[in-house]
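Sample intake sheet
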Amino acid sequence: MRDAFGTKKSGQKNIYFRPLTLIEIVASHKNKGTLEYFKEVALAQPYSTLHTDIAKTTIAIFISEVLHFCIKEEEQNLSLYKFLETALLWLDGNDGPANFHLILLMEISKFLGFYPDGTEQHLYFEMTGGTFVPYPTSTCLTEVETSLLRRLMVLKLNNSSNAFHVTERQALLKIMLDYYALHLDGFRRPKSLDVLREVFS
């Protein structure tokens, strides 16, 4: 990073490494287990509100923690990147982000391979298998929780502003984090979770 930032002030450096900033990097990659050097770093898409609006900033910190525990592969995943880029630019340019993190958690599960199978219209969602079932088991959501999950599955960013009230959002957030923990080895509770709950309470 010395080469990329040798003439920059520290305040200018920091803007590149705020949570979920979209940047372009030219780097020297030697694949020798040594430290790599950034030759050039530039903003790919500058944000207008994401790092100045407290609600959006809180979401960005939370999502960045979730992604840290989710994405393990070293190969590029262009489709996931493009989805995240589109979603983050939408968040930056729109108001009403209260349900954004819930929609993102649901959509990211598609790329990670455990999106709920909604082909059956049963009353209970079985968390381990990710399917809807006719009779409850010890690993099922309640009927009310299952109904909430179905509502989240059809939600889109551009029609989500009044989809859930506070207690429903909190219930869905717990459901989604429990679901991730069941399907991802090493997934941990984000440290920013309490802040997120406070901001959207």
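Comment: The longest strand covers residues 37-43. Residues 1-46 form one domain.
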